[in-house]
Amino acid sequence: MEIVSSSGSFLSSFLIFLLLEKHTLASGRSIYFSLAPKGLSSGLSVEQFSVIGPTEPIRAWVGRTADLPCYLSPQKNAQSMKVIWFQSLEIVHHYEDGQDKFDNQSPKFQGRTELVKDAISRGNVTLRIWNITAADKGHYKCHFDDGLYQEEAGIELLVSGIMEIVSSSGSFLSSLLIIHLLETHTLASEQFSVIGPTERIRAWVGRTADLPCYLSPQKNAQAMKVIWFQSLEIVHHYEDGQDKFDDQSPKFQGRTELVKDAITRGNVTLRIWNITASDQGHYKCHFDDGLYQEEAGFELFVSGEGTEQQIHWWSIVIDIFIDLLILTVIIFAILFLLYAGTYTGEGGGGA
The whole model's pTM is what? Predict the structure, then answer.
C-alpha cells in the first residue's frame, strides 16, 4: 500500500507539475503572441501581401482626369479592407467597410475623387481624380489594411498644362518652355532614401525605446519636416526647426522626444518613454524637404506585463481546454490510484 501511495503521490505530483509547467508555458506563449507583428499570433499564419503601383511617374494635364492604379500581390479580395490614398499627409480618398468615407477627406480633393472598384475583388483599385490642378502634383500613397496586416505603395503624379502667366500675345512655344523649366527644376531636386532598422525592435513595458532612422545620402534635415507615425496616428512631429505637439496622438503625449544630435547628417531617433503594450506595432519615419519626401517602416515588439491583453480570444479557449484536459487526467489518475489502493488492501486482508 505504501508503494502504491508513494507511486500515487509521485504520479500526482508529476501531473500537478505538468499543470504548473503548462501555465508557465502558456504565459510564455501569451508573450509570444504579443511579440508577433500587429495582427499576427502564434500558430496562425496571417496572409501577407504587397501593394504594387506604377513604376514610372504618372503624367496628367490641368483640367483633365488622372487615374492612379494599384493592386495587391498576390491577388486578394479587398472589398472588406480599408483602402486610403494620401498625398503627403492629406487624405485624398478613404474606403472602409465597403463604402467611401468623406468625413476626413482633404478639402482640396472634395467632390473630385472616385475609387474605381470594378476589380476590387481581385485586389485591384484605381484612384480617379477629376479636374486636375497644379496643386495635385506630388507624391501619393496607396495604403491597404485588412485588419491583420497593412502595406502601401508610392506613386508620383506630374501635372502639365499651359501656364496662364503667358500673355495672349505670347507664343505657344514660350509657354511650353516655361513648363519645361518648371518641371526640370522639380525633377532636379535632390532625392534621398530613408533607412530604418532592418530587424524588429524589442522594448519592455515601463522602459524606454529608441527608434532610429537616417537619410542616404547624408543630408542636413534641420529644415525638413520629420513625422513619425504608428499606423495612421502621429507619434511625433518636427517641422520648421521645432517639435510640434498640436496634432500628436493623445496616447503618446508627454512620452516622446526626437533626438537631434546628428540631425545635420540626416540622422534622427524617436525616443518613447514609459512603453506600454499598445505601443507595439508598425511605425513609419517620414522625411519631407518640400520638394521630395520618403519614408521607412519597421516593427516595434513589446514584452512584459500587460502584453497578454493583446492575445486573441482563441488562445484563451485553448488555455482553458488544456487546463480542463490536464485536470481530467489528474482526476482519473487519482480515482485509479484510490481504486488500486482499495483493491490491494482487500487482497492483503483475504490472505
Answer: 0.47
